[in-house]
Amino acid sequence: MDFLAIDAGNTLQKAAVFSYEGEMIAFAESPHIDKEILISYFEKYSIGRAIVSNVGTDITEIESFLHDRVPIFTFSHQTRLPIVLKYKTPQTLGLDRIANAVAANAMFPNENVLSIQAGTCLVMDFVNKDAEYLGGSISPGLQMRFKALHQFTERLPLIESTTSCNLVGTTTAESIRCGVINGLTDEINGAIQRYTETYGDVKVVLTGGNKNDLDESIKFPIFAAPNFVLHGLYKILIHNVETHI
What we know:
Elements: E1 2-8, E2 13-18, E3 24-30, H1 35-44, E4 47-54, H2 60-67, E5 72-73, E6 84-85, H3 95-107, E7 113-118, E8 121-127, E9 132-140, H4 142-151, H5 172-199, E10 203-207, H6 211-214, E11 223-224, H7 228-242
Parallel strand pairs: 1-4, 4-5, 6-9, 7-10, 10-11
Antiparallel strand pairs: 1-2, 2-3, 7-8, 8-9
Helix pairs in contact: 3-7, 4-5
C-alpha cells in the first residue's frame, strides 16, 4: 500500500506519494494542485491512505476528490504523534509546523534539532533529544521583507532577492538587498548560536522555498531537507496506521 501526502502552503501546494517503507516515489508542486495530477497518481500507484496539511488555502476540490477515492486521515493538533507537543497553545500551532517537527525528529532521533523553514515566513521549530517539541519562532520571510519595505514607504522600490550581497550597499537597491538578506541570515545565525549555547549540540535543518538563497550565508553546519513537511506528514500517517488509530 502507498500513501498520499498533500501540503497546501501559503505559496505552493505540494503532493507526494510514499511507499510503505517511506520512499518518495512521486512528487508534484504547483500554485494549485489539480485533479489531473491526483488522477494520475491513483492510476499508477496503490494509494490506500491520504493525509492533508492546509495552512488555510481553499482546497475544497482536492478534498472532495480524495473523499470519493480513499480514506483521508484527519490531521489536527490532537493527532497522535511520534513526538510530544510541549507547546502551550497547541490548538494555535500550524499543522505544517507539527509535520516539520516530526520530520526533524525522524531525521535525527535522540538529538536536538532546530528546523528552519525559509519560505513565506521564516519559521524555526525546535525538538529536543527526548522527542519533545518545545516551540520556536515566526518572523517575516525573504519576499515578505522586500514587499514590506516597498509597500510601507513612499519611494523605496520593490527589489528581487539575490543569493548574495555586499556588506555595504552603494545604491538604494543594493542597500535594500543588504538590509534584507544580511538581516535575515544574521537572524538565522544568531538563533542557531543561542540554541547551541542553551541546549548544547544541535542539528540544524534548512528547508523551504528560499533555502537556496540563504544556505551559503549560514555559518553553521546545516542539512538541506527539501519537502520536509511532506516527509513529516508521511511519518504521522504511518504512525497512526501502524497503531490502528
